[in-house]
Amino acid sequence: MRSPRRCSRNGCPRQAVATLTYVYNESTAVVGPLAAFAEPHTYDLCEPHARSLTAPRGWDVVRHEGEFEPPPPTTDDLVALAEAVREAARPVAPRPPEDDHGPAPAAPPTGRRGHLRVIPPTH
Ligand SMILES: [Zn+2]
């Protein structure tokens, strides 16, 4: 089961949307869309960290222009979504009819009974 990839910066809890790749022989840091696979010398970054990345001295930064797309939902997300849709489509169970004419149950003096609300007297 694949878990969502997190930004590789220390203490950053955000989801990674970009991958930083250091191309050592060209002294270039490439910030691109999230790579499908983690490779050596690559670091997943969240959007703020991807946008604010600065290269070490003597390095160039090649930054992906445009929006960083969040990764597609994981299988877990899809299952949760399917269950939510199924839940919403389920018909509401019919409520038993209110019986306002039978013997009065031992109801507290205040509270709801059917659509009527008992208001305690104010003195
Ligand atoms: Zn981050």
Keyword list:
123 residues; alpha+beta; 4-stranded mixed β-sheet; two-stranded antiparallel ribbon; 6 strands; binds zinc ion
Low-confidence stretches: none
Q: Characterize the biggest β-sheet.
A: 4 strands, mixed
Rounded radius of gyration (Å): 29 Å
Give the overall shape, derived from the CA principal axes. elongated
By DSSP, the count of extended strands is 6
Q: Biggest sheet, strands in spatial order?
A: 3-1-2-4
Q: What value does the average pLDDT take?
A: 79
List the total number of helices.
2
Beta percentage is 15-25%
Draw up the topology in text.
Elements: E1 18-23, E2 28-33, E3 42-45, H1 47-52, E4 60-63, H2 75-89, E5 111-113, E6 116-118
Parallel strand pairs: 2-4
Antiparallel strand pairs: 1-2, 1-3, 5-6
The structure holds zinc ion.
Explain what the structure shows.
With 123 residues, the chain is an alpha+beta fold. Helix content is 17%, strand content 21%. It has a four-stranded mixed beta sheet. It has a two-stranded antiparallel sheet with strand order 5-6. A hairpin with a 2-residue loop joins β5 (111-113) and β6 (116-118). The longest helix has 15 residues, at 75-89. It is elongated, with a radius of gyration of 29 Å. The model has no long low-confidence stretch (mean pLDDT 79). The structure holds zinc ion. Residues 7, 9, 12, 14, 45-46, 49 line the site of zinc ion (ZN).
